[in-house]
Amino acid sequence: MSLKQRIEADIKQAMLAKDKARLQALRSIKSLILLAETEKGGTDGISEDAEMKLLTKAAKQRRESAEIYARQQRPDLEQVELAELAVIEEYLPKQLDEGDLRIQLLEIIQRVGASGPSDLGKVMGVASRELAGRADGRAISKAVGDLLNNTDF
């Protein structure tokens, strides 16, 4: 079952359950998918990779909006963003915790032969591709920087 079909089925369930917050989040995801499909000029759908990128971007936007609302002391709007984020994260692969992320990055560093901070770009290119959707770009960048600056790996 494609992501679009899962979303449509979940929209029906949310409507029956009268869960307005979940329904709003699901409709926003469906809207993103439909926009991406029409950009391509066809109705045969988008790739699974493109779907994950859409969801990752949407999750990042919600997270950043929630942070802004928290700084502005707007808990009502922050809660809306966090609720939508929780729904979006249901469709994303499980995120790596910091320990697992470091283990994956150490393997990538050894595989590409990185030896110091000057190899950051080489490692980031591979890590971004392999860990897409499973770790935030900022978290990857910070961990790679820490690992490459610490030459005892």
TrEMBL record:
<dbReference type="InterPro" id="IPR023168">
    <property type="entry name" value="GatB_Yqey_C_2"/>
</dbReference>
<dbReference type="Pfam" id="PF09424">
    <property type="entry name" value="YqeY"/>
</dbReference>
<protein>
    <recommendedName>
        <fullName>GatB/YqeY domain-containing protein</fullName>
    </recommendedName>
</protein>
<dbReference type="GO" id="GO:0016884">
    <property type="term" value="F:carbon-nitrogen ligase activity, with glutamine as amido-N-donor"/>
</dbReference>
<dbReference type="InterPro" id="IPR003789">
    <property type="entry name" value="Asn/Gln_tRNA_amidoTrase-B-like"/>
</dbReference>
<dbReference type="InterPro" id="IPR042184">
    <property type="entry name" value="YqeY/Aim41_N"/>
</dbReference>
<dbReference type="InterPro" id="IPR019004">
    <property type="entry name" value="YqeY/Aim41"/>
</dbReference>
